[in-house]
């Protein structure tokens, strides 16, 4: 009797850790809209969003984060996804919000998705960089990561950095570092602008459109009632190495190479858009 109770307890504890380390959508997220179009499946291991003519759908994290290294695997809408947008981002609230965005702009079958990124600090964005991917993002799950620490924001795809936004407060550029953010994701119709600038419309005969999520993992500081789980005195203890992580020389080279080969738009090269001069963070000399 005593033995089986101990065995049961051990199994329960082991089971708990396995589930916790695999990430669990029931535990970490709330479905926020879509009237049944968003679903958590397989005991919390899988989440799907869907979009049809009547509505899209979305979810958000239960936690608010102030800095983190956050991974999510996504498999995007396959086939003719033109007009659809899958947004996956961090955002705070209020008029002077901060935001870190991944947006996936769908396309006709066989034509490339665009991965659109942006960074807002204190309500100001206009910092778009866009990329093609080096794989078909609808054939399988791929990992999209955000490293956000006080010095930098790094966007990565399957572990390879594609964009770095450095803290350049020294040049007068506000950096997101005081407002906690939640994770949000949604699948919606944006055929007024998403595909070839709005020329290609959503083909509703292909609906419902579905995007899938799995293996959420966050090494992050969560904030509740104004208090960070990381404390304020000891930010760089060993399990929080990400809090001071930077790109080593190998990753800097990779970033350069990926930008050279896959970046299709960079606001920092768009002199037409900024006739008064490029934003100060673009001047990295
Ligand atoms: C869709 O495909 C066209 C043609 O290949 C390409 O110009 C465009 O960048 C692609 N992506 C989007 C989202 O429009």
From TrEMBL:
Gene Ontology annotations for the cellular component aspect, listed alphabetically: apoplast; plant-type cell wall
Post-translational modification: Contains at least one intrachain disulfide bond essential for its enzymatic activity.
One GO-annotated biological process of the protein: plant-type secondary cell wall biogenesis
Intracellular or extracellular location(s): Secreted, Cell wall; Secreted, Extracellular space, Apoplast
Sugar-bearing residue positions: 107
An example Gene Ontology molecular-function term: hydrolase activity, hydrolyzing O-glycosyl compounds
UniProt xrefs under InterPro entries: Beta-glucanase-like, Beta-glucanase/XTH, ConA-like_dom_sf, GH16_AS, XET_C, XTH
Primary residence: secreted
Keywords linked to the UniProt accession: Apoplast, Cell wall, Cell wall biogenesis/degradation, Disulfide bond, Glycoprotein, Glycosidase, Hydrolase, Secreted, Signal, Transferase
Domain GH16 intervals: 19-213
Highest taxon listed in the record's lineage: Eukaryota
Pfam families assigned to the protein according to its UniProt record, in alphabetical order: Glyco_hydro_16 (PF00722), XET_C (PF06955)
Active site: 99 (nucleophile), 103 (proton donor)
Signal peptide interval: 1-22
EC number(s) recorded for this UniProt protein: 2.4.1.207
Function: Catalyzes xyloglucan endohydrolysis (XEH) and/or endotransglycosylation (XET). Cleaves and religates xyloglucan polymers, an essential constituent of the primary cell wall, and thereby participates in cell wall construction of growing tissues.
Family: Belongs to the glycosyl hydrolase 16 family.
Protein name: Xyloglucan endotransglucosylase/hydrolase
Native source species: Glycine max (Soybean)
Gene: LOC100782104
